[in-house]
Amino acid sequence: MTLVSEEILAIRVTAMPRDTNAHGTIFGGHILSLIDQAGAIAAHGLGIDKLVTVAMREVEFKQPVHVGDLVTCWAKVVKVGRTSVTSVVRVVAQSPMAQARGEPERDVTQAEVVYVQIGQDGRPLAIPG
Fold it and tell me: Is the per-residue pLDDT at 49 higher than 50?
């Protein structure tokens, strides 16, 4: 079964100093964590309960994220299988001053994330539908 959901605002956070690397920009791993959470939020919106991440595909960082930037994750479900759900997450960033001036957000990255619904026993569980 294939389903395309509407893109939702899944997460919006301010990039903090604790999330920076040695170059003064936000760790890529921190962005990956946000992507994982945002994709799951979109899947949960379909009424899917307990998920585990099985794959994250094609993450290419196009722009750096700086301390103080507003980081926004937009997510949508693009496929629902027998036990799996695939979400696409788009990450953008913007400094507060750029936002105040009405400037566009910067595209940071996009990723496809595959989750599997699991039951209480930790084994894959069929998605109703």
Answer: yes
